[in-house]
Amino acid sequence: MTLTPFFETSLVVQLHILAALAALVLGPVALMRRRRDRLHRTLGYIWVTMMAATALSSFFIYTIRLIGPFSPIHALSVSTLVLLWVGIGHIRAGRITDHRRTMLSLYVFGMGIPGLFTLLPGRIMNAILFAATPVGGFATALAMTGLIALAWGLRRPDHIRLLLGRA
């Protein structure tokens, strides 16, 4: 592991990485706290701010240009900003279940999936974490995707029966 790629990149990318890492770490803590708990609310405000900072900073990163200066990942940034607004609206209206579902989805799909892509060779996080063996990032992303898919599939008993061939 080396932090050299982080320090050699632009300030916008550094901000993006730091905000994303903060959101990645704070997300589970905020999601596991009891509802209406002061710490949950405080961490939630910080998490929303970090998610918004991650999404907004992405609009100034143009490493993959497919549609003008933008790429499909920028559509994810737009949806992240919209869903943050929706999630906040849910809690203000007292729709706790909808708020929880929205924020959990944002964490999984707004952090998890893009996070896996950052481990691919040629990306800065891959260069930071897997400087000696860039293919290690691909292997890690592949393994994590497999584990996530397995955990998702095992969430329901009928999936377990199907997996064991007892459908």
TrEMBL record:
Keywords associated with the record: Membrane, Transmembrane, Transmembrane helix
Q: Is-annotated flag, keyword Transmembrane helix?
A: yes
Extract the Pfam families matched here: DUF2306 (PF10067)
Transmembrane stretches, by residue range? 12-31, 43-67, 73-91, 103-121, 127-154
Which protein, by its recorded name, is this?
A: DUF2306 domain-containing protein
Recorded source organism is Aquicoccus porphyridii
